[in-house]
Design a protein that fits this description.
Length: 214
């Protein structure tokens, strides 16, 4: 195990850094956790967060399996996919860099009366929100194309995926716990565009690396 850590620590660090930037950037996952925290309370938001983490495993699994098949059977298709992914990442990065402060966010607009939702429903909403997000699919495929070498053992790839699923769930669970007051939720909504801009820089760098290492 120690040998694996020493051999693949740089690869893991790259994936972990990109994943952190991605998960911290406001998007559908952030929106649904924020919504559930406001409407239903922390418990619902926590179950939603766990569902989002579970959905990450779906993206990781078919991204890794798909990459392996493409590399072995149709290299030209893999190269084409990398260029498409790079173009898409540039598009996302450019859009993220243009993010600005919201026009109007008030404490009153975030203060919604709590209702109820079952734990199971909250969990599956998290799974579906992340699982059916096409941007997440292409993002994970692009990240693994750049950061993970084809010869990396499946055991190590599985560890990468497990880490990202757990880290995602932990991140959003932590977010759910701090979204306890209207002031905190309002501040996050007002300043979230800075995460978008940082993510834009990372996405553009990832796109450049994709096309420069076909």
């Amino acid at each position: 195990m120690l040998d694996l850590i020493q051999q693949y620590w740089l690869e893991f660090f790259t994936i972990a850094t990109l994943h952190l930037l991605a998960v911290a950037s406001p998007g559908p996952d952030f929106a649904v956790v924020l919504k559930h925290s406001i409407q239903y309370g922390r418990r619902a938001a926590l179950f939603t967060s766990v569902g989002i983490g579970v959905a990450i495993l779906l993206h990781v699994t078919y991204s890794l399996l798909g990459l392996g098949i493409i590399i072995k059977t149709t290299p030209w298709l893999f190269t084409s996919l990398m260029y498409v992914a790079a173009a898409y990442l540039l598009y996302l990065g450019y859009g993220a860099l243009k993010s600005g402060p919201p026009k109007q966010v008030t404490d009153e607009s975030l203060d919604v009366k709590s209702t109820s939702i079952s734990d199971r429903k909250a969990f599956w909403i998290g799974v579906l929100t992340n699982g059916f997000n096409p941007k997440a699919t292409l993002f994970f495929l692009s990240v693994f194309a750049v950061a993970v070498a084809p010869e990396t053992p499946n055991l190590v790839k599985g560890m990468y995926g497990l880490y990202m699923a757990i880290a995602t769930a932990v991140w959003f669970c932590g977010l759910s716990l701090v979204l306890g007051s209207v002031k905190v939720r309002s501040a996050i909504s007002r300043k979230g565009y800075w995460f978008d801009r940082l993510m834009g820089v990372a996405l553009i760098g990832l796109a450049v690396k994709l096309v420069s290492n076909p």
